[in-house]
Design goal:
This protein is an alpha/beta fold and about 210 residues long. The protein has two domains: about 140 residues, Response regulator (Rossmann fold, 3-Layer(aba) Sandwich); about 60 residues, Winged helix-like DNA-binding domain superfamily/Winged helix DNA-binding domain (Arc Repressor Mutant, subunit A), CATH 1.10.10. The protein is built from ten helices and five strands; from the N terminus they run βαβαβαβαβαααααα. A five-stranded parallel beta sheet has the order 2-1-3-4-5, sandwiched between helices. Helix 1 links the parallel strand 1 and strand 2. The mean pLDDT is about 90.
């Protein structure tokens, strides 16, 4: 029996995932978490075979959560289930230790197949993501400017490009306006750009926002 922890801040998503899993006799959702600290506490105290993780939990970067889980329990498979398209976060998630990456638009059968695969030590990636990873491994391929950003800087870039103000980003990430402004300045410097408009144009062109 595959024991699953679902980590998502939306109760309707957690209920939906539990209903999908309940249809299969070889797996069960044994617990849920809605925020960063709950995930870490439950991983520390209970025994799970797979964590199904939304990387947009409130308060902390999803990559921080993922890295912390892998630090606490390196062998615990983490399947990222995100609203963000593969182009945004999949490669970063796999680099940070995820065993697989699925978008929330995926079919239930694909989710079940992914859980089974990562529970047995495998990796689950889509054909399109496999192709992207192959390009990533090609050392002759020039790196895109956004790949020089830290995970938090990258998250802020995507939020700026989606039209959010510094104040809105600060509120959503539970950080100060000054901190977000600092991230924004670093992003502009690293990407050699001067305005939000340039960042947004870049993000749309590179399919970092939908």
């Amino acid at each position: 029996m595959i024991k699953i922890l679902i980590a998502d801040d939306h109760i309707i998503v957690r209920r939906g995932l539990k209903q999908i899993v309940a249809e299969f006799s070889d797996m069960v959702v044994t617990d849920e978490a809605s925020n960063f600290q709950e995930v870490l506490d439950k991983v520390d105290k209970k025994d799970f075979d797979v964590v199904v993780l939304d990387i947009t939990l409130p308060g902390r970067s999803g990559m921080d959560v993922l890295k912390q889980i892998k630090s606490q329990d390196p062998k615990l498979p983490v399947l990222v289930l995100s609203m963000h398209p593969e182009e945004q976060y999949a490669v970063r998630a796999l680099r940070a230790g995820a065993s697989g990456y699925l978008t929330k638009e995926s079919a239930p059968d694909e989710l079940i197949a992914a859980i089974r695969k990562v529970a047995t030590g495998g990796k689950y990636i889509s054909p399109s993501l496999a192709e992207k990873l192959a390009f990533e491994l090609d050392t002759g391929t020039a790196k895109s400017p956004h790949e020089a950003l830290s995970d938090r800087e990258y998250q802020v870039l995507c939020m700026i490009a989606s039209g959010k103000t510094v104040k809105e980003i600060a509120e959503e990430l539970i950080l100060s306006v000054k901190t977000i402004s600092t991230y924004k300045a670093r992003i502009l410097e690293k990407m050699r750009m001067k305005s939000n408009a340039e960042l947004t144009h870049y993000a749309i062109k590179n399919r970092l926002v939908v």
